[in-house]
């Protein structure tokens, strides 16, 4: 009959107990069983909330991709379809981007809490030789529980979602829009011309009703220029982006 592995317990200040098995290399101060149970359940709860908001992010992106695919099939499949369908798609995707940016701010809050535990508690458990990233991490965590506040700004969240997914969606819409307004085959047929041959034809195709083509073209270019500015200007490597390479 084999003996159970011997466990050494030493009393530590503040009610901590250090338990070390002879067959284990782990040495980590732990509290009472109730404290450990509370911590593990809290971690699981925050992880569940983080994953819930992560799923909502994917859902919004899927809506944007599905809407763009439908609009592209409508606009490019028929010569009678006006290019305003693609401009409407740009506006709709922008609204979805705003919704996703707001959801990302909630996701980032819960991810910050989870990562505080992982970087400063669980990582130290598996590698006691390395100290915690910050000594006041528990104070920081308790403050986010007492006074929940967003840990990322609205423009920063928008810049991250643009850089991750939405920049490609907007570029596809822009390319499809230029294809639509420069290819006569996709416009109502006027003569034998296949492609535009002058700036006047280009601006004529760009016009929407009584709105001149110059105004429509300028509006689209300003809109895309502003998106590019937001993505570059508000791009940041603060917070969780400074740790590792696996980020959303």
Descriptors:
6 helices, 248 residues, 2 domains, 63% helix, mainly alpha
Q: Mean pLDDT across all residues, rounded?
A: 79
Based on Cα principal axes, name the global outline: elongated
How far is it from the N-terminal to the C-terminal residue, by CA? Answer: 52 Å
Main beta-sheet annotation: 3 strands, antiparallel
Proportion of residues in β-strands: 5-15%
Order of strands across the biggest sheet?
Answer: 1-2-3
In the predicted model, the low-confidence regions spanning at least 5 consecutive residues are: 1-29
Helix/strand-derived category reads mainly alpha
Number of strands: 3
Query: What is the string of SSEs from the N terminus onward?
Result: EEEHHHHHH
Helix-residue proportion: 55-70%
By DSSP (H or I, 4+ residues per run), the number of helices equals 6
Number of domains: 2
User: Radius of gyration, rounded?
Assistant: 28 Å
């Amino acid at each position: 009959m084999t003996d159970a592995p011997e466990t050494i317990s030493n009393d530590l200040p503040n009610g901590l107990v250090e338990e070390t098995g002879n067959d284990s290399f782990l040495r980590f101060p732990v509290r009472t069983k109730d404290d450990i149970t509370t911590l593990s359940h809290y971690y699981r709860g925050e992880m569940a909330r983080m994953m819930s908001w992560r799923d909502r992010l994917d859902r919004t992106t899927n809506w944007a991709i599905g809407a763009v695919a439908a609009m592209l099939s409508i606009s490019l499949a028929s010569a009678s379809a006006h290019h305003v369908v693609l401009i409407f798609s740009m506006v709709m995707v922008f609204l979805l981007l705003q919704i996703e940016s707001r959801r990302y701010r909630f996701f980032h809050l819960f991810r910050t809490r989870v990562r505080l535990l992982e970087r400063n508690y669980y990582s130290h458990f598996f590698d006691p030789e390395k100290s915690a990233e910050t000594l006041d991490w528990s104070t920081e965590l308790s403050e986010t529980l007492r006074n929940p506040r967003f840990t990322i700004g609205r423009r920063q969240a928008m810049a991250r979602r643009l850089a991750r997914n939405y920049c490609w969606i907007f570029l596809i819409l822009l390319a499809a829009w230029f294809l639509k307004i420069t290819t006569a085959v996709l416009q109502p047929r006027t003569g034998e011309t296949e492609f535009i041959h002058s700036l006047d034809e280009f601006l004529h195709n760009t016009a929407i009703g009584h709105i001149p083509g110059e105004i429509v073209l300028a509006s689209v270019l300003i809109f895309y220029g502003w998106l590019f500015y937001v993505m570059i200007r508000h791009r940041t490597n603060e917070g969780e982006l400074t740790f590792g390479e696996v980020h959303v």
